[in-house]
């Protein structure tokens, strides 16, 4: 089965997002084409219009790095997006067999030892392991869940995130960076297809082909028990794990959010003790 035209789709999406004036072009009259025309991209990049058309149509899937770097300059791509564009022209294995994700034992022990919300996610944003405080922070952060699916399809999760529009844009762009060129992977295709059908915001953001590095960032979260939390999210790569990340939330020491996290930890510990007591009585 022929693989999808990933490079061409990316070039077309980025071309349509460029303001001609930002590219140094003089705009005269009404333009029916969003962004730049193919001929304009080719001229600005110093390549022939026919060759650029072949790239978008997928008839040439392996242009030189020099050509792609020239196109990146035309589109105004940053370093992360340029690296992603370069990766789309390289050969990649097909028919790769899915394997079961296993979180290293030492990382599982670390999750239990941390007095902060922490969990492990896969390249697909599946939650592979989580400590009690992470699940108390957001019930969607539990093993077996997928954070992308939760953020777009779970109304309760949406209510937790005051900056939802900004958060989902960054999340989709980070998801593209995480999966890289594996968009033909059956599980990736299934997840993207499901979200594209069920969520117009996801469909719109996915069509932009934005790419953002997997990095820590400040965030706000509205918790039903302890109120508004101002946190930082850190994403730490786990060596030899196939792309797994250790995600940790923390607050500025001595802040209201730090005190709220401590209170949440106490509430979670109490709930856990109550659950254990009920199990013991029913045994």
Can you put this structure into words, describing what you see?
The chain has 283 residues and is of the alpha+beta class. It contains 13 helices and five strands. It has helices spanning 6-17, 38-45, 49-57, 65-75, 79-87, 105-113, 132-137, 147-153, 155-160, 164-179, 186-198, 200-208, 256-282, and strands spanning 118-121, 127-130, 217-223, 227-237, 245-250. It has a five-stranded antiparallel beta sheet with strand order 2-1-5-4-3. It is elongated. It starts with 5 loop residues before the first helix and ends with a helix.
Write down the overall geometry: elongated
H and E string = HHHHHHEEHHHHHHEEEH
Sketch the major β-sheet.
5 strands, antiparallel
Total number of strands: 5
User: pLDDT average, as an integer?
Assistant: 87
Query: Which strand order do you get reading across the main beta sheet?
Result: 2-1-5-4-3
Tell me which oligomeric state these chains represent: single chain
Q: In what range is the share of β-strand residues? A: 5-15%
Q: Give the end-to-end Cα distance, rounded to a whole number of Å.
A: 55 Å
Indicate the radius of gyration in whole angstroms.
22 Å
What structural class is derived from the secondary structure elements? alpha+beta
List low-confidence stretches: 91-98
- The portion of residues assigned to helices is 40-55%
Number of helices: 13
